[in-house]
Each structure stands twice: as structure tokens, then as C-alpha cells.
Amino acid sequence: MSSYLPTLKQLQYLVALKEHGHFGKAADSCFVTQSTLSAGIRELETLIDVVLVERTRRVVRFTALGDRIVEKAHRVLREAEELAAIAQASAKPLTGELRMGVIPTIAPFLLPRLLPRLRRDRPELKLYLREETSHAAVDSLRHGHVDCVLLALPYATGEVDSEMLFRDRLFVAFPKDDPRDPPAYIGPEMIDESRLLLLEDGHCLKDHALAACNRPEMRAEATMMGTSLHTLVQMVDNGLGLTMLPEMAIDGGILNHTDIVARPLRSDHPWRDIALIWRRNSPREKEFRLLAGILRDAAQENRQLPDVA
């Protein structure tokens, strides 16, 4: 085997530069100086005798081969991390560092119930949270930036293992003086798509809401403008339309101090499935399944959730 192999540090520098597109920002993310990061990448290029990055005063542009090397570097770094994870998994479970991605339509509603339980029951666990949209979170998992992701299904996750936690029902929320206020449930046919406010692209809740209604014309007519559920609630409270909210957000008090009424959606599948996912064949699978159980228990503290079919 050749002794002239790229180092993990060099690969980390290259991946950071690709992620940030700027030498200074990449260096900051690696906790080194810009000159150290630049020198490390030049050493890598000299070592493998190819140009990976085209440098100009204003632009950092990766060559086609550079992009291929970055993709491979992601996998090498991920495998290196899993070497350390094998040893950690053989020790006491759920100790040390764990990086978890969480989507914005879950994080503010479930984590306040989860974190106190984890601090109490797993004081040796150092949990680092990364809040991202579903697409970004799955990408972070694939590239090894996080160890697992808490998200809502169905969603295209690629090759992962998962454990279902619970079903989160969908509700239709509207101003309390709306003359079409039904007594108990709202069917999809009752929703005025011209007044429907949804999250902007990148949030899987938008797709879950539209799929639950099973009205294709809604996708074209609904106004997709909210950056967060709290923003949508404020717009509805100001009479600008109606929206769809997950039950965990309502249980978490998102409608407190508003003049908004929420009614359950009645359809063939008026819910989203909350799950924990991780990379397939991860050596920490046992830990993730244990964490899934803790997540499930935390969610059930405030209400009785239906079993996942």
C-alpha cells in the first residue's frame, strides 16, 4: 500500500470548502486559519497530482474531478467516523456525542418534552441538534454531518434504516368567526384552496398536507408562502386565510392567545408518520432504536398516541 495517501484532515478541508464555497468560512468551520486550510488542499492536490479547485479572487470553483473527489471524501470521512462509533456502541449506550437532525415542524414541539427526559435519564449523552428542512437533513445524514434524523414520513430518504414513533394527525386551522366552521371534522372538499396557506417549498409538511387532501388542484392554487408554522398561524390570526397544522404543534400551544379554531381533517390518511432514521448498517443501530423508544415515551407524556400500523 502506498504511503502517499490523503489524510483525513485534508479531506475534511476539501469537504468544508465545497460546503461553504469560501476559504475563510471553510477554515472557520474547521477551526483552523485560512492559510492552513488552503495549504492542506494544495498538499492534497500535489499528492494526487490533479487540480481540484480553480481559485480566483472572487470565485471558488471545483473542477469536475474535484466534485467526484468530494463525493468520495464524504464517504471516507463517514466510514472513519463509524470506526469510532463501533467502539462507542460497544460501551454503555447513549453516552458521548450524538448529532441529531430535526425538521422545523417537529423541533419546537417535541424537543421541549424530550430534552428534560434525556438529561435526567442519560446524563452522559451529549446531544447536538441541527434543525434543517427535510431535504437538507437527509443530505446531512448522507454526508455524515448528523448521525440520525427525526422527521416526518413519507419522504424520499434513500437507503436508511428507521423506526416509526407515532402518527401525527393533521388539523385545519381558520379564524374562529369563519362562517363555515363545522362542528367536528373538516373534509378536503370543504377547504377553499384559494385561501389555503402552506409552508414554502423544502418543508415536507406541505406535501403531507396536500397528499392528505388528495385534491390535485390544490397544489396549483394553494398559496405557499410561510417560512414556519408560527408565521402561518400569525397570518391566519390576521384573517389572511386558513392553514393545516400537525397535532403536535397544537398540543405544544401554537394556537395559544390567538383567535383561531382547529378541526381535525377527515380523509383516508389525515396524518404524517413521525420516525427516526439513520444510515443503513450503522454500528450504532442499537443506540438509535433505544433513542427512538425514549422519543416515543416523551411524545406520549402529554397525550395518548395511536399505535403505528
From TrEMBL:
Q: Which Pfam families match?
A: HTH_1 (PF00126), LysR_substrate (PF03466)
Record protein name field: LysR family hydrogen peroxide-inducible transcriptional activator
Q: Per the database entry, which stretches of residues form a coiled coil? A: none
Q: Which PROSITE patterns match?
A: HTH_LYSR
HTH lysR-type domain: which residues?
6-63
Q: Molecular function (GO) terms listed?
A: DNA binding; DNA-binding transcription factor activity
A cellular component term, taken from the record's GO annotations:
protein-DNA complex
